[in-house]
Each structure stands twice: as structure tokens, then as C-alpha cells.
Amino acid sequence: MKCRKCGGAAALELRRHNAAFCSPHFLEFFRKQVAEAVHRHQMFTRDEKIMVAVSGGKDSLALWDVLVEDGYQTAGLYLDLGIFDYSKESKAKCEAFAASRGLTLHIERVAEAVGAPIPVVQQATRRPTCSACGLSKRYLMNRAALQHGYPVVATGHNLDDEAATLFGSVMHWQTDALPRQSPALASTHPKLVRRVKPLYRLSELETAAFAFLRGIDYIVEECPFAKGATSIAHKQVLDRLEEASPGSKHNFLFGFLEKARPAFEKIEHVELLECTSCGQVTTGAVCAFCKLADLVKRRTS
Ligand code: AMP
Ligand code: FES
Ligand code: ZN
Ligand code: ZN
User: Fold this and answer.
1) Cα-Cα-Cα-Cα dihedral sign, residues 20, 21, 27, 33
2) Residue 214: C-alpha distances to residues 27, 30, 209, 285 (Å)
3) Which residues are bridge partners to 33 per DSSP?
4) How sure is the predictor about 268, in pLDDT bands with cuts at 50, 70 and 90?
5) pLDDT digits 0-9 by tens, 110-139
6) Nearest-angstrom CA–CA distance, 17 and 25
7) Is the entire prediction scored with pTM above 0.90?
8) Strand partners of residue 21
9) How far apart are CA 3 and CA 30, in angstroms?
């Protein structure tokens, strides 16, 4: 196998692109895909400060690395979920990454905001861990960005993540979720920051290869509250399709974004209000996060 760019020995084959690259040209390919995502969806400009939500995993640290190397103004945000050793180790990876490059890392403790760490929140809500966790993450990312003056939050969601989420929404015809599935969500209220996913064009394998080649030290273990059986099954189905027909995930996601998503986009006439308890944006009187914090307080006291 030879590198598509220089004809040298290839280090990596990308079947869906029908191409192979040597290490330097793979790094170049990767950075170009991020630049293309940023440009195509006007994610941010060089004058803006970007808050990169980092979990300590390969995707978000690879993203931070690309943006820093490209000269963007960034700071990291780590949300400490209080999930035993998993949180301690992933926090240490983010701190080491930031320290080695002289970058600012903001840290928010979920236990402080919700009243208890995620494992206790899960027991209190008696719902799948990931639902309370996901809600808390989205809320705290927005709140931290507002507090520290960042107009945009970037996350490390990759092509595999996005294709699996789309597959799940389509399987259950969650038509409300479809218009919100996008590499870039605009701000629809002064108290909502933009949310962008600059890695949506890159597969999980590619982000792992990038992190490895860049010598990024990341946490390999997944959260111990493994995602629900259904979402793992969705990823497996897509993996099998990809194996049989390289490019399936790409075609599924990109086809949706280009051809199908506009059909689900309706002008939403929901009125955005400010939560009477915390002031963040909500469609009701009290936001879902404050309701969660209240429930945790009642069930743990
Ligand atoms: P996940 O939902 O775990 O697949 O994570 C998707 C993205 O959300 C990651 O790539 C990060 O950008 C962000 N993220 C997940 N967990 C955290 C965390 N504990 N702190 C900050 N950002 C996170
Ligand atoms: Fe939220 Fe695992 S990261 S439950
Ligand atoms: Zn090459
Ligand atoms: Zn609230």
C-alpha cells in the first residue's frame, strides 16, 4: 500500500475514501477534514474564543490538539461527573494535556451543581444513567461557556457517534430529534451558546489513529455506566454495514444532512423562557436541570 499523496509506504488505509496515507499525510488529511467542517458550517472564526469540551478521551483531546495547532483561541472544559476512578483518571488526562501546552482548563463539578455525583443521581432518578448525565453535561457546558464568555462550545462527536445517533432516531422515528441533529447548532437565544462538532467528518478509527500519531495520552476505558444496550446494538449494526460496504456510515449521515434533514426542519414556534430558578433557557417555567437537582435533593436528604 502506498500513500496517495507521496507514494511512500502507507501507515493507514481508509477504505471509505479508497485511499491510504503515510503518517504525515494522514495528519494533514485529518486537519483538512476539520478545517472543511469548520468552514462549511461556519462554526467559528479566528477572532472568537472557543470552549472545547474535553472528556479525556481520544476524540475531544484530538480536537483540542487540532484547533490549538491551527492557531485558534481555545480553552478546555472538563465536567467532573464524580464517577469513581473513571472521573479521576479522565480529569488527570485533561489536566496533563492542558499543562503540557500551557492552555486554560475550566473544571466544573457536577456534584456541586446537581447536588450529588452521577452514580447517586442515577439512583435518585431511577432512570438510565446516561439520561441524567447527558442533561447535566449539556446544561453545564452552556452555563460554563456563558459564565466565562465563550460564544461557542465544541465537542468531540465523530462520524460513528453521529451516524449511530441518527440511526437511533430514525429507528424510533423521533422526528423532533432529527432537525436538531447537525454538526452546528446556532444560538437561538442570548443565553444559549452555539454548539459545534468539528470531527463529524472523521471516523472513530481515524481519531484514534490521529491521537496515537500525535502522542496524545488519553483515557482508553469507557465510562463504567456503559451506554444502553440499544445504542451499542446500533453501533454494531453500522459497523457490520461498514465492513460489507465501506462508506456506509458516511453516506447515511451525509445523505441525511444534505437531502433529508431540510424536510424535517420546521419553524418551531416554541417560546423560549428563562428558568425561574436558575435563569437559564427553558420552554417551561422551571428547567429540566433544576427539576433534576430538586429531585436529587428530595431523594437523598
Ligand atoms: P460522549 O457523549 O461521552 O460520547 O461524549 C461526546 C463529547 O462530549 C466528547 O467528545 C466531549 O467533547 C464531550 N464530553 C463528554 N464527557 C465530557 C466531560 N466529562 N467533560 C467535558 N466534555 C465531555
Ligand atoms: Fe455519563 Fe457515562 S459519561 S453516564
Ligand atoms: Zn505521504
Ligand atoms: Zn433552571
Assistant:
1) negative
2) 8, 12, 9, 47
3) none
4) low
5) 999 999 999 999 888 877 777 889 999 999
6) 14
7) yes
8) 12
9) 14
- For strands 49-53 and 152-154, give the pairing: parallel
Nearest ligand 2 atom to alpha carbon 224? 2
Residue whose CA is closest, atom 4 of ligand 2? 130
Residues with a CB atom less than 6 Å from ligand 1: 53-55, 59-60, 77-79, 81, 137, 155-157, 161
Which contacts (CB < 8 Å, 24+ apart) does range 228-233 have?
A: 228/128, 228/130, 230/168, 231/164, 231/168
Instruction: Give the Å distance between the CA of 6 and the centre of ligand 3.
Output: 4
Higher pLDDT, 126 or 262: 262
Closest residue (by CA) to atom 16 of ligand 1? 55
What DSSP string describes 236-253?
HHHHHHHHHSTTHHHHHH
Burial class (CB in 10 A: 0-12, 13-18, 19+), 246: middle
Ligand 2, atom 3: closest residue by C-alpha: 223
CA of 292 to the centre of ligand 4 (A): 9
Q: 32-69: buried (b, 16+ CB within 10 Å) or exposed (e) per residue?
A: ebbeebbeebebbeeeebbbbbbbbbbbbbbbbbbbbe
- At 269 the pLDDT is 66
Mean of all residue pLDDT scores within the chain: 94
Give the pLDDT confidence score for residue 196 in this predicted structure: 98
The answer, yes or no, to whether any atom of ligand 2 lies below 6 A from the CB of 129, is yes
pLDDT in tens, 137-150: 999 999 999 999 99
- Which atom from ligand 2 is nearest to the alpha carbon of 137? 1
